């Protein structure tokens, strides 16, 4: 399914490299466009990510910027990989706008840090729980679209079990997540038992922010931070609303939410206590 060579992530890196190379060259977009026989609008679209350049376009740009050898080959290969379609591409119509891009970036991430105030994160949901959440929140989706969305959500979870290279997940959950009954007692009990099992994996950390912690900086809503294996790829922030998802292109925003996540971790129960609390809640839901 997913691999670390995600087209979306490759495109993000390519955009950053093209911007860096032009800035270092001292050339304007108009000057670059003249040298490759194109328009400044096209160069702008390459540099803003609105258009994915063909490998031949990138080859022409490397000639302008004087990039040779392995560096040139690497950029052209990025362009090849960026134009491929990820496994999620056929399902874009069933997803909220922007979420397909997030899936593509998540596929290449090495670390996911997520805060959820209301529901279990998608990477950790059982199929019945996921279906109950999607049915409740997807007011305009048809039954077939609901099932397609459920399938995509479950497919993403392979990242946690990727042989030899699983993604590392740190999930901070509000206490409400494990108390709110979604889909009935049996579904909720199964979901919480699943969380307990996930909490036993070496690449998964679960932390509960108890009600007793009081007010905190993340009360405005959920968010997710992605980190990548290559240090040249900066961390990324994903914010989700009811009808769309957003990836703010602002390092200050990333820094703010990184600090916010650290604050949440300071307020949360430790991993062992958190998992024990989840297990306790699972028993409550399973009792008749």
Automatic annotation (TrEMBL):
It comes from the Bacteria. InterPro entries: Cro/C1-type_HTH, DUF5753, Lambda_DNA-bd_dom_sf. SMART domains: HTH_XRE (SM00530). It holds the Pfam family HTH_31. Residues 18-72 form the HTH cro/C1-type domain. Coiled coil: none annotated. GO terms for molecular function: DNA binding. Gene3D superfamilies: lambda repressor-like DNA-binding domains (1.10.260.40). This is Transcriptional regulator with XRE-family HTH domain. It comes from Streptosporangium becharense. The lineage of its organism: Bacteria, Bacillati, Actinomycetota, Actinomycetes, Streptosporangiales.
């Amino acid at each position: 399914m997913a691999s670390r060579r995600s087209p979306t992530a490759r495109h993000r890196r390519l955009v950053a490299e093209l911007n860096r190379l032009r800035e270092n060259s001292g050339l304007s977009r108009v000057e670059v466009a003249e040298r490759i026989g194109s328009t400044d609008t096209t160069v702008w679209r390459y540099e803003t990510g609105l258009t994915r350049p063909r490998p031949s376009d990138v080859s022409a740009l490397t000639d302008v910027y004087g990039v040779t050898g392995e560096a040139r080959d690497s950029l052209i290969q990025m362009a090849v990989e960026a134009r491929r379609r990820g496994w999620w591409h056929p399902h874009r119509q069933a997803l909220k706008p922007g979420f397909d891009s997030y899936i593509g970036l998540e596929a290449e991430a090495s670390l996911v840090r997520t805060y959820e105030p209301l529901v279990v994160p998608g990477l950790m949901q059982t199929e019945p729980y996921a279906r109950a959440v999607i049915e409740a929140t997807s007011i305009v989706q048809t039954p077939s679209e609901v099932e397609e969305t459920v399938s995509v959500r479950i497919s993403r979870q392979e990242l946690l079990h990727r042989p030899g290279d699983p993604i590392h997940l740190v999930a901070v959950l509000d206490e409400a997540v494990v108390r709110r009954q979604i889909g009935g007692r049996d579904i909720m009990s199964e979901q919480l038992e699943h969380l307990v099992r996930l909490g036993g994996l070496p690449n998964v950390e679960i932390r509960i922010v108890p009600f007793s912690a009081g007010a905190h900086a993340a009360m405005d809503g959920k968010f997710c931070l992605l980190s990548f294996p290559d240090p040249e790829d900066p961390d990324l922030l994903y914010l989700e609303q009811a009808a769309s998802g957003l990836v703010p292109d602002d390092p200050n925003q990333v820094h703010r939410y990184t600090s916010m996540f650290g604050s949440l971790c300071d307020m949360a129960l430790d991993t062992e206590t958190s998992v024990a609390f989840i297990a306790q809640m699972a028993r409550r839901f399973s009792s008749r």
